[in-house]
Design brief:
alpha+beta, 2 domains, 3-stranded antiparallel β-sheet, about 45% helix, about 25% strand, elongated
Length: about 120
């Protein structure tokens, strides 16, 4: 459901539902005309296209990582869509650093409160 547009990751804007070989399928697409071409060629039928819906949390996670390099696609996708942080990834290192910085800040505030 993610794709690259220039140097940024983005969420695919459309969700297509269709039948192929008698089974219903869903696909996320960037360009409606691409999937419509499959219907016109007879490869799929009963095509409907709607705006894709994403949770606010997914959109917020995307904003955090949209500028990551394309080589991190799997890690970015897992994080944006499911909130999963891939073991050993750059994202994991960054999140651990953020957690450590927050802990240090909280400890400093606690110490300052004790001193005064």
């Amino acid at each position: 459901m993610l794709y690259r547009d220039g140097d940024k990751f983005k969420l695919m804007p459309y969700k297509a539902t269709y039948q192929q070989h008698g089974e219903e399928h869903e696909s996320y697409v960037v360009d409606k005309s691409e999937i419509q071409a499959f219907e016109e060629m007879g490869h799929i039928e009963n095509l409907t296209i709607a705006d894709a819906e994403y949770a606010n949390e997914q959109q917020a996670r995307l904003a955090e990582v949209e500028n990551y390099p394309e080589s991190d696609f799997q890690c970015v996708s897992a994080y944006v869509l499911d909130g999963e942080i891939t073991e050993g990834s750059t994202l994991q290192s960054i999140k651990q650093k953020e957690t450590l910085e927050l802990s240090i800040l909280e400890l400093s505030e606690m110490m300052m409160g004790v001193m005064f």
